[in-house]
Write a structure and sequence with these properties.
globular, 6-stranded antiparallel β-barrel, mainly beta
């Protein structure tokens, strides 16, 4: 699984983010969160900046060199022959991945995507 090339396309949940997809990259690492052990870190071929809402009055730009993704569909895994729907999380601070399990509250769920093996 590690090292597989993945293409993430837009699926739903945040139409503004759709213009930033598709993105390709490779699976760099596997992570566990408090309730799941199948989050994958995707190193993107082409990083980008994306503006996220911090609260009702503030926004900030996040530089995205990676996505954290996980399959939304039970029984379908990332990196297999069939595409699967995934949660796409942006990582505002990569040091959030230093402590295990990963605190998903430190990430930003931006959209749902479709992950294809390239």
């Amino acid at each position: 699984m590690i090292g597989k090339r993945i293409r993430v396309e837009y699926f739903d949940h945040h139409d503004t983010f759709a213009t930033f997809l598709p993105r390709t990259g490779f699976i760099e690492r596997k992570f566990s969160s408090e309730h799941c052990d199948d989050w994958y870190l995707i190193r993107l071929d082409e990083p980008f900046d994306f503006r996220v809402e911090v609260d009702d009055f503030n926004h900030r730009n996040i530089y995205n060199s990676h996505f954290l993704i996980r399959s939304r569909w039970q029984g379908l895994e990332i990196g297999e022959a069939e595409p699967t729907s995934v949660f796409i999380l942006l990582i505002p601070d990569m040091s959030a991945l230093d402590e295990l399990p990963v605190d998903l509250e430190a990430c930003h769920h931006v959209a749902w995507g479709m992950a294809h093996t390239v």
